[in-house]
Amino acid sequence: VQLAESGGVSVLFGGSLILSCVADAFTYSNYCLAWFRQTVALLMEGVASISTRFGTLYDDSVKGRFTISRDDAQKTVYLQMNGLKPEDSGTYYCAADSLPHTCRSLYNHFEDWGKGILVTVSS
Prior knowledge:
The protein is mainly beta.
């Protein structure tokens, strides 16, 4: 599956952004989709995931501020980010896996990844 992210940019503390990721999968509606980020310290963190079977899952650091959603007709997954903080800065990656059970944890292995997009939040 090819994944392509868009929407990254620089914003000020407290600002909002929406990231998009388009896929070319045939059976997209069955896929587990997620957003990860690699911080400036080069740590890879699971941010949020979504699947038809298991719903949404968020890392504690973004709960209440970020919202993951999907449009299966457009084969697109979104990440709405509000109340952005400098520690949210990093390279954000879209990920997909054909097994719905992958969405049970943000620590599971995902088989397909986008190239990443940079988000910078300035204080």
